[in-house]
Design goal:
The complex is a heterodimer. By secondary structure, chain A is α/β, with parallel strands linked by helices. In chain A, 42% of the residues lie in helices and 23% in strands. In chain A, helix 4 packs parallel to helix 6, helix 5 crosses helix 6 and helix 8 crosses helix 9. In chain B, helix 4 crosses helix 12, helix 7 packs across helix 8 and helix 11 runs antiparallel to helix 12. The chains are: A alpha/beta, B mainly alpha.
């Protein structure tokens, strides 16, 4: 698939000039509305007897400013999709194209333990060559935004799990990214902390018109946050269903609309699991 | 049958919005900062708490030593602590102890510096190249298991009785430990941390500077500590075997006093060796090690 390889390389180039991209000077192969496009993406790990087809023929498009949640049981290749979109891995076949700068957030905060919270938030700006005073001011601003003002001088291990995820969120925003990729970012948190982070993420992304690709196995979380929910089947990962969410914002996770949708998505997932168990 | 994780979650009862808040921790207040400022009295109490058990243990050891003397076991060799103490004072006044310590410390300083350079070079090579790792990775540990004294016949044959022979054996003892510290540190970096670094824009040399090197530091400092212990043992073995004229060192004097049957002086030299080893290993490297571990969140007190 030389065409695919070519586009992937073009994608790398695009990423290299983040700013030029925003002005859309680089030719975009996909639909003008979309900022992420996966076409016929298949990903195979290993060879021979150890061969594992993680993703099979995935088509997925995310439009500018859209929040798309990928749900599925473990082993359905959700993280693999994020890695491909983030450019950390290459598809076996098919094409992956993204527009704009990308930030990635993990389940574990992945803050650097030797840096203070503020230095962690400053790091992407430091790597981008932004001056000390400017990045310090911006970090303070971002920490205030995630309600961590006053904690800048602490070390990550001195914070609670929820606070670490807030800091990671501030660090992701410090990249000034257009695309936010989130890999079960709130999976390890208790329900109440998670709920307050949902509120925060909702208001921040809506205020900035960020595009979010959010991976979770928590259906309620997906119904709470997403504009669209994409259900994946496991082994190999395939897109099985798509739910458009038209519940108005701000949402509450306990609202009947969110619960109802979560129920329908869960039903669909259960069917998938049964089909998978029978096969 | 696959379990859909969210099934239970979807049936959760509604969460009361009024109780939704994170456990609140107060940010840096004026009081909190003041509390963290240096407090001489508190420091003194902490220091006393840390030292008195050590002093008590030392007293017991000296008492045991004295009782062996009273008992009269091999009085020709085992001298009373007080005699040893006054001999130590004399040797200090005569300048013997300061000179031997100076010569020994200069020697190990150069030896350790050389080990550091070579150890870091080897460690970097091995951790960054698969071929080099396959070739010499296990050999590094192999060299480390070789008792340093076993190298001396070869070292003396190569360099005769010179500083070079001692330095050679120090490097063979310490460099592998330092290299291994670095290699293990690089191996133990969580892949997620490297991925996070890449996503934040740390690629190539920047990834080394901002992610790999700091992530390796705790293990590297551990390697330095171990390297020091190996260097110190190699050096002492070297100073006992390779006597260099007009350059008295703690090792050579130890040997000389034994040859002259000056057992008070010999005991003093042993105490000097013990003290230097303890100070550098426990106080210097130990403190460094703990400071790094605490900062990295690997040590909770």
């Amino acid at each position: 698939m030389t065409g695919g390889a070519h586009q992937v390389r073009a994608n790398e180039r695009q990423r290299a000039n983040g700013h030029a991209l925003r002005r859309q000077q680089v030719a975009w192969p996909g639909n003008a509305m979309n900022v992420i496009e996966l076409n016929g993406v298949t990903k195979v790990f290993g060879t021979g007897r150890n061969e594992l087809v993680a993703l099979s023929d995935i088509d997925l498009a995310v439009a500018l400013g859209e929040v798309v949640c990928l749900v599925g049981t473990s082993g359905c290749g959700k993280t693999t999709i994020l890695n491909l979109v983030a450019g950390l891995d290459q598809p076996t076949s098919g094409t992956v194209a993204t527009r704009g700068r990308t930030a990635l957030m993990f389940q574990e905060a992945a803050l650097f333990p030797w840096l203070t919270v503020s230095a962690n938030v400053e790091l992407p700006m430091r790597l981008a060559g932004i001056g000390k005073a400017a990045r310090r001011a911006r970090a303070a601003e971002l920490l205030e935004m995630v309600h961590l003002d006053g904690f800048g001088k602490r070390l990550p291990h001195q914070l609670s799990g929820g606070m670490r995820q807030r800091a990671a969120m501030a660090r992701a925003f410090a990249q000034d990214a257009d695309l936010l990729l989130m890999d079960e970012p709130f999976g390890a948190l208790d329900a109440m902390t998670r709920d307050s982070l949902h509120d925060e993420l909702e208001s921040l992304t809506r205020a900035r018109g960020l595009t979010v690709l959010f991976v979770t196995h928590n259906v309620r979380e997906a119904a709470r946050l997403g504009d669209r929910i994409v259900v994946l089947s496991p082994r190999p990962g395939r897109v099985k269903a798509t739910f458009d969410v038209d519940i108005p914002h701000p949402r509450r996770i306990e609202s009947p609309a969110v619960s109802g949708l979560a129920g329908r998505v869960t039903e669909r997932l259960r069917e998938e699991a049964l089909v998978h168990a029978r096969s | 049958m696959l379990v859909v994780d969210n099934a239970t979650d979807a049936n959760d009862p509604g969460i009361d919005a009024s109780v939704i808040s994170e456990p609140v921790e107060l940010p840096d207040s004026h009081e909190a900062r003041a509390a963290r400022r240096f407090d001489a009295r508190k420091f003194g109490r902490k220091l006393f708490g840390a030292t008195w058990p050590k002093l008590a243990a030392l007293t017991i050891v000296v008492l045991l030593w004295q009782s062996v003397v009273w008992w009269g076991y091999k009085p020709r060799v085992i001298k009373p602590p007080l005699d040893v103490w006054s001999t130590a004072a004399d040797l200090w006044q005569d300048g013997v102890i300061p000179e031997t310590i100076r010569n020994t410390m200069i020697r190990i300083g150069w030896g350790f510096a050389l080990s550091l350079v070579i150890g870091v070079a080897i460690g970097t090579l091995v951790s960054s190249s698969k071929i080099v790792r396959t070739a010499i990775g296990s050999m590094i540990t192999g060299i480390q298991t070789m008792p340093s004294i076993a190298w001396f016949p070869f070292a003396i044959a190569l360099f005769a009785r010179t500083e070079g022979a001692i330095r050679f054996v120090i490097v063979l003892g310490a460099a592998p430990a330092i290299a291994n510290g670095l290699i293990n540190g690089v191996d133990q970096i969580p892949p997620q941390m490297l991925r996070a670094g890449r996503m934040l824009g740390a690629r190539g040399i920047k990834a080394y500077r901002h992610v790999v090197l700091p992530a390796t530091l705790p293990s590297f400092v551990g390697g330095l500590k171990q390297g020091w212990a190996f260097a110190w043992r190699s050096l002492l073995a070297g100073e006992l075997l390779v006597i260099i004229a007009r350059k008295p060192s703690v090792g050579s004097m130890l040997q000389q006093y034994r040859d002259l049957s000056k057992y008070e002086e010999m005991t003093v030299m042993m105490l000097v060796i013990f003290t230097i080893g303890l100070l550098v290993d426990a106080v210097f490297f130990g403190t460094l090690d703990r400071a790094v571990r605490r900062r990295w969140g690997l040590l909770t007190d």
